[in-house]
User: Fold this.
Amino acid sequence: MSVHVEDKKSSLRSKEFFASFGHKEDGAITIFACFMVFMMLMVCGIAVDLMQNEMMRTRVQNTLDRAILAASDLDQPLPPDEVVDDYFAKAGMIEMLDNVEITPGAELPTTNFRVVSAEARTTTPAIYMALTGVDTLPVYTAGTAEETIENTEISLVLDISGSMRNNGKIGNLRTAAKQFIDAVLEAGAANTTSVNIVPYAGQTNPGPLVFARAGGNPFATFIEDETGEMLLYGDTITDEDGNTIEIPHNSKSSCLDLTTADFSNINLPSGGYTQTSHFMNWVIDAPTMDWGWCPQNNSAIQYAQNNAGTLKTFIDDIRLHDGTGTQYGMKYGVALLNPTSNSTFKALSEQGLVPPQFKDRPAAFDDDDTRKFIVLMTDGQITDQFRPSDPVDVLNPTLELNARGDDKTRFSTRSTNVTNFYSVCTQAKDAGITVYTIAFEAPQNAITEMRNCATSPAFFYKVEGIEISSAFKSIARQINELRLTR
Assistant:
């Protein structure tokens, strides 16, 4: 009987214990804390998985970007698809490379543009997210790089005034200008880039053909020999009767005396002009200079050329002349980028003075496929314009005006010339032409003129000595800029 009673008491105590356990809250916070710790570990684990995935995506994207940039370079000698493969192989990611597309094609290295698109795919393990059933995370990257050598028109306007003989400036200019020519005409760029070289001293010589098309009125008839070569002052020919004829001195150059009205537009001159006489104002430095305020015909403008060798030879052979008429150089440089000059380019092409592929230049200002640039360099401020009192005086080709007392007139003042210069600069920029300017060991007035003419202060360079090469290299690099489009 006692055993049965004890069993009842034990059973009652058990019921009371379990009944009270259901109402007690002791230890509840511990369970909640354990749950929260588990959740935090899961969140941190997911973050680690995502961070590892992003690190891999960044590595793959960086590799892809470098690969397509190198492959899109038109100077790249290897097939572009092989370049992309090589980058990924060296990075240990070749199996991730999913697709490479080359436009217009991997086997067309001479085209003026190349677009390289690529995609890469891989996965990263999801260590913590695997607890939720996600074993891996995808990695996808894509990119497109393009190098386009657009149709490019450049007017290289170079100061060849007598002061360029000082401090080795002309030698430094020759080196820098030739490096510039090599850079802008490198590889396939020569197919789409035309360069006008516009030398200027006191005047700018457009050459006999453009002189005639403008309605130039020469003081003497230009004479060609039996081969068609232009004869210069000092040469002689024998006529049909056996008489010896000396070529008149004014036929040695072909400059037009422009007026202020000509600077109100950026067209090539037309309508009739007096020829600039063949004279010097200041004393000549015979070792470095040729006689003439107007550069002689062998230093006339070179139109729309793309043969680097020919252009560099011309630069090496340029001789210095008298005066600084920057307004003339700028006028012609801009006019040769103006589509209104197209008929002249066609005429020049017919005479073999412009390559056939450039006979339709200059392109329209709104042509989306063409960029136009002026690169203007000077070492001096714009000067007054002088002329001999008698344009055909026999002293003109032998004695400078400053040694002849009052035997000269002021054709235009420095102030007028600077105003005309700024007018052309403004019109060029308004037309969308990018204007780079270089003041080379120049006085303050010239520095101001160059800075004001440039597209913006960032396009103006003030240099000394061999720094001029750095300026030209910087300009060429901007013209040839490689772009990552996506």
